[in-house]
Amino acid sequence: MGKQITITVDGKQIAAQDGQTILSVAQSAGVRIPTLCYHRDLTPTGNCRICVVEVEKQRFLQAACVFPVADGMVIHTASERVRKSRGRTLELMLANHPQDCLVCDASSGSCELQDLAYEYQVTVPEWGSKGKRYIVDSDPNPFVRVDFNKCILCRRCVLACAEIQGRHVWNVAYRGFDEKIVAGPGVTMLEARCESCGQCAAYCPTGALSDSMSHAVARAHQVKKVMTTCTYCGVGCQYDLNVKDGRVVQVTSNPDAPVNGMALCVKGRYGYDFIHHPDRLTQPKVRRYLLEGSARPRDRGEWVDVDWDTALNIAAAKLRSARDTYGPDSVGVLTSAKCLNEENYLMNKFSRQVIGTNNIDHCARL
Amino acid sequence: MAGLATAFGSGAMSNSMADVANYAASLLVIGSNTTEQHPVFGSMIRRAVRTRGLKVVVADPRRIDLVEVSVLHLRHQPGTDIALINGLMNIILEKGWEDQEFIADRTEGFDAFKAVVLKYTPEVVSEITGVPIEMLYQAAEILACNKPMAVIWAMGITQHTTGVRNVMDLANLQMLLGNMGVAGGGVNPLRGQNNVQGACDMGGLPNVYPAYQAVTIDAVRERFEAAWGAPMSPKVGLTVTEMIPAALEDKIRALYILGEDPVMSDPDVNHLKHCLEMCDFVLLQDIFPTETAQYADVLLPGVSFAEKTGTFTNTERRIQLVRKAIDPIGQAREDWRIISELAQRVLAEGKRQIGEAPYAGWDYAHSSEILAEVNALTPSYAGATWERLERGETFQWPVPNSGHGGTPILHIGKFARGKGLFAPIEDAPPAEMPDAEYPMFLNTGRVLYHYHGGAMTRRAKGLMEIYGQTRIEINPEDAQKMGLDGKQRLRVISRRGQIEAEAWITDRVPPGMVFGNFHFPADQNVNLLTNRALDPTAKIPEYKVCAVRVEVV
Ligand code: SF4
Ligand code: SF4
């Protein structure tokens, strides 16, 4: 970092370092500058012009997310000129934007464009274009729902895919009014080697890229978010399970996750529907021969649904009888690399204390 | 991770994922298809390549995805890892790139080790591995001259009959270069499933109590006897790969299986099914009626991670909270409740009496009470208390006390066993090599869209939409020889069984090798083909290499 300098922001003297951007100085001094294309995880591009500020001695307004500070610089972050400019920028964005807000998912139900429109009290202009320019849900990817009518060309998806996921699926094509985000050379996401991680949807500030599985399922204020740890691989990503009416309806990134931040993979983000799958075992079952006290048929015979007491008593009696008849080492215990530490500890205690054997293992080897 | 335990006295990943991504100057990826098996870590590596020029060397017979961002791809023959690593070390010694100070101060056994490595000249190694001599020199230079260098691996290294020795040789490499106990270095086995690390830490192993305290040491056993109030067995137990076959000899009469699906995940499935059939009593506790359920007598419905509270430990030893988001579905119960209920019922009668002891009981109202017991009996988890985790802290063990912040890097200044042990490791061929009748190598593993036996991911709609059946990867050269047009199915036959699946013609696999996964049941599961041959120490089966014959259906 460069040398210590002083700048003036909205009349306040603030210490800064040479080379910092106006935005980062303002943020550390607690001065809020609204942003849209900027995201702290991604390279700033100065694209959307929402974060513009007035810098004295500069003819044009400057994008705070990329403009570097210099000693003695005097900055106005909320002057009339600045606010007008932001309002106009928003108006232009909305002019092109479908008025779908009542039924929009807006990536997890929180639309940054809507927040800013509210803050600046901008509505869709009379002269705005009507009708849709692109096909809604235009990509066959089963996880990411694409609706470029809602795209504001902020390029966060391009950067999220390139910089977070390292996959470079999204590009910007065409110029001017036709400017558009495309996958690869204008193919489907999967053809452009998408890994379905959903990073692009997680970083999209509008409803242009959203999660298909939770489309039209819940509004943001209807869900309870519970931060937990992924059930799949050993990376140990954390994220929020979004719960509505007792069902997990979506997984969303939690930027505080210690290992992964906002990043997740396809299994973690979109592999949750097994939780409510109809195949789930919901009742204890025992084989009929155990209830009848008859000999075990070779194929073990048919299943019977029973209550917990019946199942646990039968299981306990069988394990006890093997232990007491053939000795503790006639019982084997397989614990689970998918279960909790607490449960693995109990399985270890179960085999060693309750049964008296060290025949316990799990599939670390497999 | 017996190999690392021998070399250093501790078997876990020595560094952290962020530490590798942020500080390593070069990275050897050997036997890990990181972007598919540990995807978020894979993307961290890609990011490190892009933002700070991390130099990645991939050693893998398959052209895995990370090859794209690597500076070098060593495509060695399957099962020749030791020759390859020895060859790199031979060149490092030839060029004088070894870290003499580290070797002198922190290790022992160097001379015997060196004598063996000197035999692995580039010519010899090139012959065994099929890697050109100049590539061996390039790889050695990149890895030795861009320090710190980290090594990461996964089942591609351990699932061989030489698995433990493969790992010990990687430990040799990192000691030779002085890459231990430094940020951005280390030996980093990536654990496959979310809580493999925790299951090992918690004593889910036949030879150790929690925190790797050996069952054979009297003092340890007495401590647990005093804690749990019963006499404990001093005899090392059976591993999973021994336990189930022991049913055939009536040595095992009853099995209690929690959340595992051996019929999908174990090698040589046909044999395994036969063993389960013969077992007197099988108790299965799981969330789905898995393939193994067919062989069970009692099925107890446990819950998914979304329905319970507790902790998982990730591959970098990080203990993190799992929080209950929804109530158990139907009559299912949290697994820890089921285990406790069952324990109480087994102990209610019969020959085994439990005495008064501080942790003898099974009456837990909440999983935090179990964690408190873990804190008391597991030195490396002692400080990872519920209160701290609830506050949002996470720790990498060892966390010896409640004032300790955890240990992101192991082996700083000193190894757990004192000096690091160099071991002379000789190359050995896999248990089964291709021959006239079974002329191709079969390699097995996972794909991005599925997880292990597939019980969960096969029930996720979108994942199935993208990857809905086993595909056998086969090289275009072999496909052409067989007249395969890309639409036909393949039959893959080994000495143990056969499968049929769709072909994917791709140069991800080299000529002479096919690759399949074990996510799909019945006649699509490659584990019908794999070999039960075990590494003699770790008892890990040789999934990664066996000989097969491939036919067009
Ligand atoms: S889902 Fe992931 S890989 Fe696919 S386009 Fe979005 S960010 Fe890129
Ligand atoms: S989100 Fe993906 S990378 Fe992260 S822990 Fe889950 S499975 Fe692993």
What is Rg of chain B?
24 Å
Shape type of chain B:
globular
CATH topology label of the largest domain in chain A: Alpha-Beta Plaits
| CATH secondary-structure class of the largest domain in chain A | Alpha Beta
In quaternary terms, these chains amount to heterodimer
Could you please say which CATH topology of the largest domain in chain B applies here?
Rossmann fold
| Overall strand count of chain A | 16
Number of distinct helices of chain A:
10
For the sheet with most strands of chain B, the description reads: 6 strands, mixed, barrel
At the first level of CATH, what is the class of the largest domain in chain B?
A: Alpha Beta
Tally of distinct domains of chain A: 5
As for the number of domains of chain B, it is 3
Description:
The complex is a heterodimer of chains A (366) and B (553). Chain A is 26% helix and 18% strand. Chain A is α+β, with helices and mostly antiparallel strands. In chain A, a hairpin with a 6-residue loop joins strand 7 and strand 8. Chain B has 3 domains: 2-190, Dimethylsulfoxide Reductase, domain 2 (3-Layer(aba) Sandwich); 196-396, 3-Layer(aba) Sandwich (Rossmann fold), CATH 3.40.50; 440-552, Barwin-like endoglucanases (Beta Barrel), CATH 2.40.40.20. A 6-stranded mixed beta barrel of chain B has the order 16-20-17-19-18-21. A 5-stranded parallel beta sheet of chain B has the order 3-2-1-5-6. Chain B starts with a helix and ends with a strand. At the A-B interface, helix 5, strand 10, strand 11, helix 7 and strand 13 of A face helix 4, helix 12, helix 14, strand 9 and strand 10 of B. Strand 13 (285-287) of chain A pairs antiparallel with strand 11 (298-301) of chain B, so a sheet runs across the interface.
